[in-house]
Amino acid sequence: MESTKTAMEAFEKLEKVGEGTYGKVYRARDRATGKIVALKKTRLHEDDEGVPPTTLREISILRMLSRDPHVVRLMDVKQGVNKNGNTVLYLVFEYMETDLKKFIRSYRQAGENIPPQVVKSLMYQLCKGVAFCHAHGVLHRDLKPHNLLMDRKTLMLKIADLGLARAFTLPLKKYTHEILTLWYRAPEVLLGATHYSTAVDMWSVGCIFAELVTKTAIFAGDSELQQLLHIFRLLGTPNEEIWPGVSKLKDWHEYPQWKPKQISTSVPTLDQDDRSIGEWSRRRRQWRLSKSSRKSEKEPMANCTEPERERATGKIVALKKTRLHEDDEGVPPTTLREISILRMLSRDPHVVNLQGLIIKLKWYSLILDLNVINDIKQADGCEVKQGVNKDGKTVLYLVFECMETDLKKFIRSFRQMGENIPPEVVKSLMYQLCKGVAFCHAHGVLHRDLKPHNLLMDRKTLMLKIADLGLARAFTLPIKKDPEVLLGATHYSTAVDMWSVGCIFAELITKTALFAGDSELQQLLHIFRMLGTPNEEIWPGVSNLKDWHEYPQWKPKLISTSVPNLSRDGLNLLSQMLEYEPSKRISAKKAMEHPYFDDLDKTHL
Question: Of 444, 469, 475, nearest to 340 (Cα)?
């Protein structure tokens, strides 16, 4: 797929046409042929967190899907160097002049409806492209108008931005929601705050403190809503008086009103002196939860990882193995972040020490291998070895100091014995944790996933070290979600994409999003208000989904009230796309055969 010329030797940049989280997109001219292309630029400088996972997935999946006319074509992958001397990766795509979001907006601004035949053509092409993806085992997972490219003259539509796409297999893979991580998540994050700082880690530290004493999680919710309710039951439901601004957080709703309890009711064996060491604990009763009032870590103070022996020294180390085989989704972002952040933090005694890196390679057509090696060779004190494992697959090993246990297992051992962890041990572990967190924060790093499992320990010395920094400084963007995902389903398949297709269908008609919630709960309520609150009769098993709760009871409305300008056949197709029960939701292939498309000229589609 790649050629020997660099990107700038082969292409002339004409103008920037877009910019996203992981790079810029340029309209460019192929110097050899004069053809207009799109260059998607991704910076791979060593100070960044590595090759973005969206880019890695796009390369892998587009190599498989690019032969379909309704999936954007990846023409080449090239390496280049920018004016600052930093390495960049260019994905070379066919050029499409607009996208469906802009196309819809142009009609909205003109005060006109998109002609029914145009809607029909675009929907047929979308169904055809989605059917091709599903037939090849790919879920897009982020279908929205902005990710659907278009040619204004021919009205050709192509699916793009497959960075969030995932391969699926039958039987279905389980997609977890990382429930354990919720137990240590700060309330401002649960309530949708977009600006937060070191205080989020200190909430996690507090939860760990309580768990050290009680040997069980203090707030063990199995969904974001349940997590909040657990917190409110103990600490009281917050209000503007004790937490100014709480009602303005985007996921704030009217919650049951609980009065705060004494923390000693949940942590009964923690004596008063211990509580004063963790003074933030007593302040929790007053719900001083804004990040400005939460105590910092300085105040209380006045994974497929296996042990291995280093052949040269006999020293026991931990090898964390990551496969980089071309059929996988690329280098996991957690690994890329760990390498970057641990190089900066490893000199602190309470952060796990990254001692080296080993890469075993099988060369293939992508530049990915070369860039990964370049990043690794620049890591201080890292040794790189090249080779192939017994299966001929590329793997990356992170070499860590070996710690024999973690805090989760340590707590469990006391729980199984029916004993309390000695107060002086609790105190020592909390001090080490605060010290390690203080070092991270002083160097501008938020861990964001502090929990007992991520805190390694030496049983003999009781030394504690912070590990698993893969989520540090990470963030995600909201995507369109269907009701089974919003309600916590962990087994789902192609139906999730078809829900998105239905939402896009409606937006093509109305020129505005059908369900425009700004949080998961609001999104569900928007859906329920229109389609009715689901029950066991219309969606068997819905009440067993892990995030199901008692919701207001709405009766279903006619879809035509929200999408008034759609034909009878169109409304029928849309209703089949927006079926609650995933198994009843129409497939992309079946949608293409729907009578709505009968009078469409499919000759050139």
Answer: 469
